[in-house]
TrEMBL record:
It is found in: Cytoplasm. Pfam families: Dynamin_M (PF01031), Dynamin_N (PF00350), GED (PF02212). GO terms for molecular function: GTP binding; GTPase activity; microtubule binding. This is Interferon-induced GTP-binding protein Mx. SMART domains: DYNc (SM00053), GED (SM00302). Residues 521-553 are annotated as: Disordered. Belongs to the TRAFAC class dynamin-like GTPase superfamily. Dynamin/Fzo/YdjA family. Keywords: Cytoplasm, GTP-binding, Nucleotide-binding. One of its GO terms (cellular component) is microtubule. Residues 521-541 have a biased composition (Basic and acidic residues). GO terms for biological process: endocytosis; intracellular distribution of mitochondria; mitochondrial fission; peroxisome fission.
Length: 668
């Protein structure tokens, strides 16, 4: 079983060559407070003075010790870096062990130490002892209270059950007279699962007098026989070395199955990464054509919703285009008020401007066309914004394909940039064409107001009915309201009213008024008489608002403007309602048409056009002999990463072979 430790050392050498710690190998981590005797314990295990000594923190970086039992003594320092220092010690006096010496735990910065020295040391220690494959060798001096041991506290934080913690009680010879550590060594104060071992450290006097380690070990054993005879066989540096070797051996045996699974999984991952980096290019034309074809296919598949990598965090490609059409664009159109920005004064002004110098007998149709075109024009801006959003999404798909779908593009940055440039230029070329088509769709609606549209017939009938009622009221004498019109009058009143409207002549209107007046008089109504009196008053009355101007006084006939806040007459209110109903009805028809036609135009002139011509455009622009070698130059990062991954894969294969050797030799 002891041959397991050198095999683990071979594994560690394999992973040291690639400079990585992805595999956490079994090792013993030495933890203790500053000046707790850690260095003396390690030197007694090695059998040689080799660690620096001094006041304050002397060990400032992790030191990984590989003790290898051979017939000769040799120290090999593998190099210094921000990573731990690795030191191999070949000696016939050591047992096969792998130890990690860490800086001592300190509380107060001294000298040139940084203010956060305590936090730095704690973080470093935690990074090593949190490895589940490591054994924790906690060192605490016998002349201090074990309940306040920082080493044990750290060990319990990461190993609460104590399955991988061994306690070493150092400086047994420095306890106060009349006291001993028997209760502590027996585990009656604080029990430790893997055991408690007491040792006697070399004193500073022994170091100054250059007392050999062999003499120090003999003196340690004599001290234990005198003061702890019942525990002498289970204490001391030699027993500690044997115990550590045995614990590490069993720990390695327990960790090997998981270690093999980890190595196998990593081999698969690095093999996939190496395949992703690809092999060096040999056939430039075939490689370029393959990458371009794959990119075009991935681009189209993203639009169609069948990409190899489907995102789950946000909408992308065709899904986002669909959202733009039916959510963003659709809701924007639905939020536009058909009568937004139109006041009743605007409508009345349009009606008056459409009639010219003659008073209107009915609502002129041209005023409706003027106002409804103004409202339809408001649909153009959101329609063009819809085109812009789809264009932006098509641009985003380029980056999506570069990042997730076509890993080969990362190998060739110049080819990637050229593909992005070609696709961007194609999209930019189609954008004004699509905008022009959308502009035409709105212009088509503005070019001809189809009042014979099937969905507009109801509104037109309402308008005609209202106009007919207005004509009848216009022909009634003053004082004869529509409520006073008897059933006998209703028939011929409407007939002559229509005659007056159609003839549009003064004679016809006068004739109708005379007929109505006579009919009203015969029916017993006083409307005719009152009408005659009203006409006489009007003929005699001077022009309202205009007196005889005095000599030298100028009069501006436009000084008297229509008050914007006055109440509308019944007829004006009715005219406004008719125009509003017509505008709303026709606007909804046009909005429905635009909401349907704009997405179709965008798909035809932009999306589908790009899909159908993308590959041919890429091949035509990039598949040229003069460009192939320039475009297929790998980036320096890709080449370096391929070499690193290949090196790591080779190390993993070696590690797998070593683990297989353990299985074959029945050491598992």
């Amino acid at each position: 079983m002891e041959t397991l430790i050198p095999i683990i050392n071979r594994l560690q050498e394999v992973f040291l060559t690639v400079g990585t710690d992805v595999i956490q190998l079994p090792q013993i981590v030495v933890v203790g407070s500053q000046s707790s005797g850690k260095s003396s314990v390690l030197e007694s295990l090695v059998g040689r003075d080799f660690l620096p000594r001094g006041s304050g923190i002397v060990t400032r970086r992790p030191l990984v010790l590989q003790l290898i039992n051979v017939m000769f003594s040799l120290f090999v320092l593998q190099g210094i870096s921000p990573e731990p220092i690795h030191l191999k010690i070949f000696s016939p006096k050591v047992l096969n062990l792998t130890l990690v010496d860490l800086p001592g735990i300190t509380k107060v910065p001294v000298g040139d130490q940084p203010e956060d020295i305590e936090a730095q040391v704690y973080e470093m220690i935690q990074s090593f002892i949190s490895n589940p494959n490591s054994l924790i060798l906690a060192v605490s001096p016998a002349n201090s209270d074990l309940a306040t041991s920082e080493a044990l506290k750290l060990a319990r934080d990461v190993d609460p059950e104590g399955r991988r913690t061994l306690l070493v009680v150092s400086k047994l010879d420095l306890m106060d007279a009349g006291t001993d550590a028997l209760e502590v060594l027996l585990g009656r104060v604080i029990p430790v699962r893997l055991g408690i071992i007491g040792v006697v450290n070399r004193s500073q006097h022994d170091i100054n007098t250059q007392k050999s380690l062999e003499d120090s070990l003999r003196g340690e054993q004599a001290f234990l026989q005198r003061h702890y005879p019942s525990l002498a066989a289970r204490c001391g540096s030699r027993y500690l070395a044997r115990t550590l070797s045995r614990l590490l051996m069993h720990h390695i045996r327990d960790c090997l199955p998981e270690l093999k699974s980890r190595v196998t999984a990593l081999s698969g991952q690095y093999q996939a990464r190496l395949s992703g980096y690809g092999q060096p290019v040999e056939d430039h034309s075939a490689t370029l054509l393959q990458i371009v074809t794959k990119f075009a296919s991935d681009y189209c598949n993203t639009i169609e919703g069948t990409p190899r990598y489907i995102q789950t965090t946000e909408l992308c490609g065709g899904a986002r285009i669909c959202y733009i059409f039916h959510e963003t664009f659709g809701r924007t159109l639905q939020s536009i008020d058909p009568l937004g920005g139109l006041t009743e004064l605007d409508i009345l002004t349009a009606i008056r401007n459409a009639t010219g110098p003659r008073p209107a007998l009915f609502v002129p149709e041209i005023s409706f066309e003027l106002l409804v075109k103004r409202q339809i024009k408001r649909l153009e801006e959101p329609s063009l914004r819809c085109v812009e959003l789809v264009h932006e999404e098509l641009q985003r798909i380029i980056q999506h394909c570069s990042s997730y779908s076509t890993q080969e593009l990362l190998r060739f940055p110049k080819l990637h940039d050229s593909i992005v440039e070609v696709v961007t230029a194609l999209l930019r070329k189609r954008l004004p064409v699509t905008n022009e088509m959308v502009h035409h769709l709105v212009a088509i609606e503005l070019a001809y107001i189809n009042t014979k549209h099937p969905d507009f017939s109801d509104a037109a009938q309402v308008s005609a009915s209202v106009n007919s009622q207005q004509v009848v009221l216009l022909c009634l004498p003053s004082g004869l309201s529509d409520q006073a019109c008897t059933p006998q009058l209703s028939g011929f009143l409407y007939f002559y009213a229509v005659l007056a409207v159609n003839s549009q002549g003064h004679f016809a209107r006068t004739f109708v008024q005379n007929v109505v007046s006579k009919a009203a008089h015969d029916s017993g109504l006083d409307g005719g008489k009152r009408w005659k009196n009203d006409r006489a008053v009007e003929e005699r009355a001077p022009s309202s608002g205009f007196g005889s101007p005095s000599k030298g006084q100028a009069i501006n006939l436009l000084d008297t403007a229509l008050p914007p806040s006055r109440r509308l007459t019944t007829r004006e209110q009715r005219d406004c309602e008719v125009i509003q109903r017509l505008i709303k009805s026709y606007f909804l028809i046009v909005r429905k048409s635009i909401q349907d036609s704009v997405p179709k135009a965008v798909m035809h002139f932009l999306v589908n056009f790009v899909k159908e011509r993308l590959q041919s455009e890429l091949v035509g622009q990039l598949y040229k002999q003069t460009l192939m070698h320039q475009l297929l130059v790998e980036s320096a990062d890709t080449a370096q990463q391929r070499d690193e991954v290949a090196h790591m894969l080779e190390a993993l294969q070696k590690a797998n072979n070593i683990i297989s050797e353990i299985r074959e030799t029945h050491l598992w």
